[in-house]
Amino acid sequence: MSTGEDRPPSGVRPSLFLERQSYRRRRLSDAARLLPFFGAALLAIPLLWPDEPGAPEGVPLSSAIFYIFACWAGLIVASLVFGFAARRMAIPDDSEPETD
Fold first, then answer.
1. pTM reported for the whole predicted model
2. Which ranges of the chain have pLDDT less than 50?
């Protein structure tokens, strides 16, 4: 059984704020986790375009293919940006002195 020495006193509440670096790292990982869903939504947009065979206002296939490849390239660039940002945040910052 615990003696209660490791718990803070009942009147003292733990801090609700995180360190700036860990907060940014968590938000970056949250955004990276949402990237596949965002990409799926972008790639599904051509399914909503009008597809009437005799209508002149239909979207040409070349435009749809260009849109899909532009989204694909944009998702690659976004994932590279997230990767570089995650690598940069993983490196400890040596400018601040360490405290015990």
1. 0.63
2. 100
